[in-house]
Design goal:
mainly alpha, Glycosyltransferase, three-stranded antiparallel sheet, two-stranded antiparallel ribbon, 9 strands
Length: 301
């Protein structure tokens, strides 16, 4: 059942939000069985902290549902790695890449903060989101660059990668849902972060419901996963009451575009694709976000 760490976490999260609890728990168990030195879902020597954390919310759910101590120990061990790793900035922002590479990536917003929030580490979740934003977010454009190289103090990839902005919007959306009622100021701040991303992205939405891989570069290939990610974000935000229903028209355009690309076997075509994310193709996260989007639309009613 094991895939690469971020794939395992994203697919498991889709099953969890769909209510497919047995499948979600089986994915959590797979992540535990491949836990190495506290890190979930390690394949061979690949185990960057943020990506390994992506299944953390599902592991927490598995423990609450089953009471099996293997899940609690696994979550505790992963949290200990997060809390004690020296592989972070001087301000405590964890690098997305495996040691010794010191990169901060927009993908991280989906991988690490939701696990921290699910574990009750709310302040740390917000600290990481704020840190990623500090390094990657461009206020004028309302978009995130993809990769900051902290070793060389410059962007490794300054491009506004569409899926990276989608990871950020969807991940922060999950954290908003988990924050307790006594953290309303923090919740309002994160809601504004989500609105910023939506507004920054949606100005580049094509008439066919797709985005270019690099959002503001029309010479890059069009793809559909950002459309799915933003539609999910909108459906969840409108359902929770913090996004205006005016966003729904564009969400439905993006949703229809995604549905038009699902074949008879259920594969979503034209997502930013494997293995190098350099073409419109297939990807596990593309499948997962189709399910997440459809579940969020169903929950909205």
């Amino acid at each position: 059942m094991q895939r690469f760490d971020w794939e395992q976490g994203t697919v498991a999260q889709a099953f969890l939000e769909m209510g497919e609890e047995d499948l979600a728990i089986s994915f959590a168990r797979g992540a535990i069985l491949r836990q190495v030195k506290g890190r979930f879902s390690v394949i061979k020597d690949n185990g960057p902290i943020n990506d390994c954390s992506s299944i953390g919310e599902v592991v927490m759910f598995a423990y609450k549902k089953t009471g099996d101590p293997i899940f609690k120990k696994g979550a505790d061990d992963m949290l200990e790695v997060i809390k004690t790793t020296p592989h972070k900035t001087s301000a405590g922002i964890i690098y997305h890449t495996q040691e010794p590479t010191k990169w901060i990536m927009s993908d991280a917003n989906y991988m690490l903060p939701p696990f921290l929030a699910a574990a009750g580490e709310y302040k740390e979740a917000i600290k990481q989101i704020d840190g990623f934003r500090k390094y990657l977010y461009h206020p004028k454009d309302q978009l995130y660059s993809h990769i900051w190289d902290d070793e060389n103090k410059k962007f490794k990839r300054e491009d506004f990668w569409g899926v990276g902005n989608g990871w950020s919007a969807a991940g922060i959306t999950r954290v908003i849902k988990m924050l307790p009622g006594n953290m309303m100021d923090d919740k309002k701040k994160l809601i504004q972060y989500v609105k910023d991303i939506l507004d920054g992205c949606l100005k580049y939405l094509r008439t066919d419901g797709l985005f270019h891989d690099v959002i503001n570069k029309p010479d890059t290939f069009p793809e559909v996963n950002l459309s799915q990610m933003l539609a999910y974000t909108i459906f969840r935000g409108v359902k929770a009451g913090y996004l205006d229903s005016n966003y729904l028209a564009k969400a439905e355009i993006m949703r229809k575009t995604a549905n038009d690309r699902v074949d008879s076997l259920g594969y979503v075509h034209d997502v930013c694709g494997l293995p190098n994310f350099d073409r419109p193709y297939f990807a596990p996260e593309g499948q997962a976000f189709y399910l997440l989007m459809e579940t969020a639309a169903k929950d909205l009613g």
